[in-house]
């Protein structure tokens, strides 16, 4: 089982969380001008990388707050967490974005 560290509640079992998919998907500003293909890409097309991936998670059975996690999809290792108010906090305690 994956152990996920909620930025507010601390480490909890994966079963308490709901994955919201890929993080940092920007909603198009002028949706009226999008083609059907562009709108479909925004709604459905997501990266599926082998390696480092940024995801949104909801602590559904806890504080019900959203946060982002940077996770390696091969090893399942979570490298850091980020709230929408503060940048990535890596697991070794260093703030700031990592590659
Ligand atoms: Zn929480």
Mean pLDDT reading: 90
Please tell me the CATH architecture of one domain by its name. 2-Layer Sandwich
CATH superfamily of one domain: Folate-binding superfamily
Low-confidence stretches: none
Question: Would you count the extended β strands for me?
Answer: 7
Q: Write down the CATH class of one domain.
A: Alpha Beta
Element string (H = helix, E = strand): EEEHEEEE
Helix content: under 10%
What is the molecular shape? elongated
Q: List each distinct ligand once.
A: zinc ion
Looking at the structure, the CATH topology of one domain is Folate-binding fold
Please summarize the sheet with the most strands: 5 strands, antiparallel
Strand order of the largest sheet: 3-4-5-6-7
Rg: 15 Å
How far the N terminus sits from the C terminus, by CA atoms, comes to: 26 Å
Portion in strands: 25-35%
What class, by secondary structure content?
A: mainly beta
Q: How many H/I helical runs?
A: 1
Pfam families: SoxD
Protein name: Sarcosine oxidase subunit delta
InterPro entries: SoxD (IPR006279), SoxD_sf (IPR038561)
GO molecular function: sarcosine oxidase activity
SSE layout and pairing:
Blueprint: E1 3-6, E2 10-13, E3 18-22, H1 36-44, E4 52-58, E5 66-72, E6 78-82, E7 89-90
Antiparallel strand pairs: 1-2, 3-4, 4-5, 5-6, 6-7
Residues 6, 8-9, 59, 62-63, 65 line the site of zinc ion.
């Amino acid at each position: 089982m994956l152990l996920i560290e909620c930025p507010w509640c601390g480490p909890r079992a994966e079963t308490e969380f709901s994955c919201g998919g890929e993080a940092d998907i920007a909603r198009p500003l002028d949706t009226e001008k999008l083609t059907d293909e562009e709108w479909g890409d925004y709604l459905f097309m997501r990266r599926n990388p082998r390696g480092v991936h940024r995801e949104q998670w909801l602590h559904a059975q806890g504080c019900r707050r959203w946060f982002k996690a940077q996770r390696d999809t091969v090893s399942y290792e979570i490298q850091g967490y980020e709230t929408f108010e503060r940048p990535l906090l890596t697991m070794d305690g260093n703030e700031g974005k990592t590659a």
